[in-house]
Write a structure and sequence with these properties.
The protein is of the alpha/beta class and 209 residues long. It is 49% helix and 13% strand. Helix 4 links the parallel strand 4 and strand 5.
Length: 209
């Protein structure tokens, strides 16, 4: 039996995922939570095989939560689940230690398949994403850039794109301001821009906001 914990701040989404997974006789939902605080509290009491983690779960962003889980609960496998751009975030979350990434726009059947695959220690991304990662489409040139970015750089860019200042980014990611400035300079270099306005335009092209 595969034990699953669902972490998403939307009750309807949690209920929907539960209903789909409960249709499989070899999957058991052992807990569901709505915040990262609830997630880490639950993990002290239950031992899921797989955590389905929403990217924008409140309190700590999904990638930071994922890193914390890898440190504190290294045996738990995480499947990221998000409405955010699959092309950008799938690779970032997998680099940060996720076993898979599932877009909220994916077919419902994928959820059961993804949980089973991840529980076995295998990676999961949709066939469509795998094809897009393998072949750059001429009409989506800006998306090529995301492959150059580390998961931390994607986090910094996303926060900058949402209007946060360096100090707020530093506080949100538990970094110092100087480090954020270094990341910003590195992002400009990698995305081939020389000012913040163009950097945010690239963020928009990457569908970070």
């Amino acid at each position: 039996m595969i034990k699953v914990l669902i972490a998403d701040n939307h009750p309807v989404v949690r209920l929907g995922i539960k209903k789909v997974l409960e249709s499989s006789p070899d999957i058991e939902i052992i807990a569901d939570v709505s915040t990262t605080a609830e997630l880490f509290q639950a993990l002290k009491n239950v031992s899921p095989d797989v955590v389905i983690l929403e990217m924008d779960i409140p309190e700590i962003n999904g990638i930071a939560t994922l890193r914390k889980m890898k440190l504190e609960f290294p045996d738990i496998k995480t499947l990221m689940y998000s409405g955010q751009s699959e092309d950008v975030y799938a690779l970032s979350t997998i680099r940060a230690g996720a076993y898979g990434y599932l877009s909220k726009t994916a077919d419902l059947d994928y959820i059961v398949t993804a949980v089973k695959k991840v529980s076995e220690g295998n990676m999961f991304i949709t066939n469509e994403l795998a094809q897009r990662l393998a072949f750059d489409e001429g009409t989506q040139k800006p998306r090529r850039f995301f492959r150059k970015l580390s998961s931390r750089e994607v986090e910094v860019l996303k926060l900058l794109a949402s209007g946060k200042r360096n100090k707020e980014v530093a506080e949100g990611l538990n970094l110092n301001e100087k480090t954020v400035s270094t990341y910003k300079a590195r992002l400009m270099k990698k995305l081939n821009v020389d000012n913040l306005v163009d950097l945010l335009q690239q963020a928009k092209a990457l569908e970070l906001y």
